[in-house]
Specification:
- With 460 residues, the chain is an alpha/beta fold.
- The protein has 2 domains: 102 residues, Roll (Urease, subunit C, domain 1), CATH 2.30.40.10; 321 residues, Metal-dependent hydrolases (TIM Barrel).
- The protein contains 13 helices and 19 strands.
- The strands form 3 sheets. Strands 1, 2, 3, 4, 5, 16, 17, 18 and 19 form a 9-stranded mixed sheet that branches.
- The protein is globular and about 70 Å long.
- The two termini are 35 Å apart.
- The protein binds N-(aminocarbonyl)-beta-alanine (URP) and zinc ion (ZN) (2 copies).
- One zinc ion (ZN) binds next to loops.
């Protein structure tokens, strides 16, 4: 099978030019003006932006969490991702305390194998670091292609590890060429504040927000940066939300210490005023919580300053019925919100179309940087000869409205109901196949491939 995409405005993290792309099988084999190649399918991309497929390195599909499972499984989640222009996701395996990493991998394979529509990979969340876990790290990096290890400095009593475990894990991961990603908030402080609010009879979603003030994130981020610098282990802070935490990273860079930073689309465009309503605010109960307008400004600036390299989603959807588990107690509301399908269009509409970021920056933070940081570049994350033909065609001017009535995520509300978006993903190619066209998915479950990732190289 061959495809010729003609006359598109090709945007990568560095370039912007009009040309044709010729695809044979799964990969791009030629790029140039007026290519003479014959193809089975020709796509006229005149007037469209042609960009690398999005990479969302932070999603939770079919994940056991807070007494329930996130409501998108590997099929519905990766299909919804494709509709929104994201061709590859990285999901999280959670080690169960007392069990091995390998046991967790087998459990996650049981749910994901042959079920994905789009491409996917895994981070391994280490929740119990001990001498047995230590022995498994090298195997995961060198044999399984799982090169990033997630740690939680919060969710005390469930997923949280202490600093002793963190340092030990960092040393081992560093030795074998991997990376640590971290949920950086102070779990003990949060645990105390939750208990304090509950004891005072404060049960509404607003108290989820008030139990995780900015200082809990700033403190943990600073601690993580220092531990990463001490061990020289590459580090990546997931879902960073606020000025205090970004300043901790900024200050460290002044001493030539570095960690990668991810924020999520919701922290750029939503704010904590959404918690000032009754239980409806549960739709946005996530950790860390939404912050203030001043934090949004800091994050957009951080993207342009190169301090924030990735915009992900932390997609972790729950049906309204599941959110109701916390009707009388905010600490029982399953944490997370749906965004896997909305990330690219929202970032384009709010970022590029409103002049906050350039087109090249859009590609960098929605695709290229994640591919580089997580060992998939240049197979993923760019438009180049030899790269996988993961390509989106976007109409920069088409307006549409986001709604649970029309989205493809398996969740019965939208965090962005009624949101007016300018810019629409029209066509999506995944490894040389047309996956989305005319609002229809053209590939089946099982087409999505597990992507084995390379060791981490500090190239950005
Ligand atoms: O609220 C969130 N973020 N839910 C998913 C788990 C996590 O902390 O990433
Ligand atoms: Zn988290
Ligand atoms: Zn998460």
């Amino acid at each position: 099978m061959s495809i010729l995409i003609k006359n598109g405005n090709i945007i990568t993290a560095t370039d912007n030019y009009v040309a044709d792309i010729f695809i044979e099988g799964e990969v791009i084999v030629a790029i140039g003006k007026n290519l003479p190649h014959q193809a089975d399918t020709i796509i006229d991309a005149t007037g469209k932006l042609v960009m690398p497929g999005g990479i969302d390195p932070h999603v939770h599909l079919d994940m056991p969490f807070m007494g329930t499972y996130s409501s998108d499984n590997y099929e519905t989640g990766t299909r919804a991702a494709l509709f929104g222009g994201t061709t590859t996701v990285i999901d999280f395996i959670l080690q169960k305390q007392g069990n091995s990493l390998q046991t967790a991998l087998q459990e996650w394979k049981g749910r994901s194998d042959n079920n994905c529509v789009g491409d996917y990979s895994f981070h391994m969340a280490v929740t119990d670091y001990n001498e047995n876990t230590q022995k498994e790290i090298q195997h995961f990096i060198e044999q399984e292609g799982i090169t990033s290890f997630k740690t939680f400095m919060a969710y005390k009593g469930a997923l949280m590890i202490d600093d002793r475990q963190m340092i030990g894990l960092m040393e081992e991961v560093k030795k074998h060429g991997g990376l640590i990603n971290v949920h950086a908030t102070n779990g003990d402080m949060i645990d105390y504040l939750i208990a304090k609010h509950k004891a005072a009879g404060k049960t509404a979603p607003l108290y989820h927000y008030l139990s995780q003030p900015e200082v809990t994130e700033a403190e943990a981020s600073e601690r993580f940066v220092e531990m990463a610098a001490y061990t020289q282990c590459p580090g990546y802070i997931v879902h960073l939300t606020c000025e205090g935490a970004l300043n901790a990273v900024r200050n460290a860079t002044q001493k030539n210490k570095k960690v990668f930073v991810e924020t999520c689309i919701q922290y750029l465009i939503l704010d904590a005023s959404l918690y000032e309503q009754n239980f409806e605010g549960a739709k946005w109960v996530m950790s860390p919580p939404l912050r203030e307008k001043k934090d949004q400004a800091t994050l957009w600036a951080g993207i342009n300053q190169g301090l924030v390299q990735v915009v992900a989603t932390d997609h972790c959807p729950f049906m309204w019925q599941q959110k109701l588990l916390g009707k009388d107690d905010f600490s029982k509301i399953p944490n997370g919100h749906p965004a896997i399908e909305n990330r690219m269009e929202l970032l384009f509409s709010e970022g590029v179309n409103k002049g906050k970021i350039t087109l090249n920056k859009f590609v960098e933070v929605s695709s290229t940087n994640a591919a580089k940081i997580f060992g998939m570049f240049p197979k993923k994350g760019t438009i180049a000869i030899g790269s996988d033909a993961d390509i989106i065609l976007l109409d920069a001017n088409e307006k549409h409205t986001l709604s649970a009535k029309t989205h493809h995520m398996n969740v019965d509300y939208s965090g962005y109901e009624g949101w007016q978006v300018t810019g629409k993903i029209k066509t999506v190619l995944l490894r040389g196949k047309i996956a989305i066209d005319n609002n229809e998915c053209k590939v089946d479950k099982g087409y999505g491939k597990f992507i084995k990732r390379n060791k981490v190289s500090q190239i950005i």
